[in-house]
Amino acid sequence: KIVRNQPLFFKLRLMLVALFETVTSLIWTSVLLVGLIALFSVIFVQACAHYMDEAEPSDGTLHVILVFWHSVPMGVLTLYMGITGGLNWWALEEAFLEFSPFCAAIFLAYQVFMVLALLNIVTGVFVNDSIEVAQGHREMRNITLVKRYEESFKLLRQTFMKIDEDCSGSITLDDFVHALQYTDVSVTLETLGVDSTNAVRLFEAIDVSGALELEIDDFVMGCVALTVPAKSVDMEFIKGQNMKMMRMLKSLHATTKSGTEKVTLAQSGDQDTGRR
């Protein structure tokens, strides 16, 4: 509970969650890795067994083979050490070159495949799983969003203080346009995702009330609203508002037309009465 409630342990919690969620991938990766290594181990042990039957006892290569290739399990351990840095694989390659260039070529291909292909693929799988866990975990996602908004609020408040040079507590359009000439203000807004290329248009978008003056809360909330991308629910809401406005305009047009016709008829009646 202490770890859960302390923001200091957020990274630790994230690593632990990712570790527990990737256990299945770890098991299947281990099975694949052991299976491939065992396959190559069988090939090398059989080749070394044929060589040991014909080799002289004084052969220096025989000592390397007896140590590392005397059984399949030892071969698996040797191949594993060869790709993880536990053993200098050149000593094994040199021994293969002495009696079997074919085995030397296979061993070299094994090193290239395992180090450059398989291990990188495994690393990519674990990184992808960890990213998906971090993005899909609801609590982690909420904590990340809260931290992001806190940092955005802090930066926007600092930016407002820079724009409000006279410390009046509010900024005008002229103050805003003048402040955007400074690189640090414009860069801060661009970093937060606020397009500051058109200062007048940006100020008008934030100034919802149309008072041509912004207080710090209006400035911060307006900039934060501009940083959030529009979602489908926002588009549907705008569509619904447009439809309501269209119905109101049609009703207003019909009312105006009816009133105009009544006025026209009344004027025509007055003219007829006047003639009589």
From TrEMBL:
Entry's Gene Ontology molecular function annotations: calcium ion binding
Keywords recorded for this protein, A-Z: Calcium, Membrane, Transmembrane, Transmembrane helix
Residue span, EF-hand domain: 151-186
Transmembrane annotation, as ranges: 12-45, 65-90, 102-127
Source taxon at top rank: Eukaryota
Gene3D superfamilies: 1.10.287.70, EF-hand
InterPro entries: EF-hand-dom_pair, EF_Hand_1_Ca_BS, EF_hand_dom
The protein's name: EF-hand domain-containing protein
